[in-house]
Amino acid sequence: MRRFLATTAVIAISLALVTTSAAADESGNSASSAALAACKERAQAKKVTVTIKVDGKATTYRYVCSEILAAAGRVPAAGDFTIGLDVLAKQCFASAGCSVAYRPKVKYRGSTPLDPSKAYTVVYEVDGAESPITANVTIRGDKITAQRGTAYLPTKGTDLSVKVTSVLEGSAN
Question: Torsions phi, psi of 161, nearest 5?
């Protein structure tokens, strides 16, 4: 996903005008995050408009505070995330199979923004290894914390697959 640094994000609220910087991406998640923050900051606001300018081109997003605040209170579903594995190293041993070092790469695809003040633990399973692998990734705001993993494959031709199984609010810090 291409990410752009928004030069200006202007949040117009029915009672006040707030200016903030935001990172814009193609899905508008940064705009909805900025709108969520504005709705929380201005409890009296009913609607929020976020305008993001990138290279002189403005994109405007409109939100209803009651809807965005209600959606922010829910824990995202496993289906709101996609996950893949970046293979860092692979070493094969004749007929003994292979050892694969990987790092998970998770993306949020939900329709409402994640609450930046909360941590979410995304639990995933890796299939194709000799033994089952269950691990997790923690997301807090824009920061994703993921540990490298190692999988032992029974044969050279075995491929790993990965799927998100659950999402928990909070983390074990």
Answer: -130, 160
Whose tokens are 């941590």? That residue is: 119
* The two structure tokens encoding residue 102: 């990987």
State the pTM of this model.
0.60
pLDDT digits (tens, 9 = 90+) for 115-143: 888 899 999 999 999 999 999 999 988 88
The CATH code of the domain at 78-169 is 2.60.40
Residues 80/167, Cβ–Cβ less than 8 Å: yes
Q: Which two tokens mark 136?
A: 């997790």
Q: What length is written for the chain?
A: 173
Q: Where are the alpha helices (DSSP H) in 28-163?
A: 29-41, 65-72
Domain boundaries for CATH 2.60.40 within the chain? 78-169
